[in-house]
Specification:
The protein has 110 residues and is an alpha+beta fold. The chain has a single domain (5-106), classed as Aspartate Aminotransferase, domain 1. It has helices at residues 5-15, 57-61, 90-106; strands at residues 21-26, 29-34, 37-42, 48-51, 66-71, 74-82. A 6-stranded antiparallel beta sheet has the order 1-2-3-4-6-5. α1 packs across α3. The chain is globular.
């Protein structure tokens, strides 16, 4: 399955002008990186994949339509999935993109 190009465009509109922003195909989706650190991605599994501060992961998982990100059967610390139903409105998408971009800004550039 390919990533949702409409979702990628919606993300692109939100991150436009972010310093150090690049796009890269990752995990079968399209990732948006800040100074080389992935912030958010239109996932090939549908929905959004994002980086979060591991300290805040449980708080984010308390929101509807969120799941831990699992890769090869293992939960990835500091990563979160938001299923498509949690991204229906621009307000919902903006909330999650802001979380990912804000955290990526705190990481050292690669």
């Amino acid at each position: 399955m390919s990533y949702d190009e409409r979702l990628a465009d919606r993300i692109r509109d939100l991150v436009e002008g972010e310093p150090g922003l690049t796009e890269q195909r990752m995990f079968g989706g399209l990732a948006f990186l800040v100074h080389g650190n992935m912030a958010v991605a239109a996932s090939s599994q549908g929905g959004l994949l994002l980086r979060v501060d591991p300290v805040d992961l449980d708080t984010h998982l308390a929101h509807p339509h969120t799941d831990p990100f699992v890769m090869r059967g293992r939960e990835m610390t500091g990563w979160l999935r938001v299923v498509p139903e949690g991204l229906d409105t621009d307000v919902e998408l903006d909330r999650w993109v802001t979380v990912g971009v804000t955290y990526a800004r705190t990481l050292p550039p690669k």
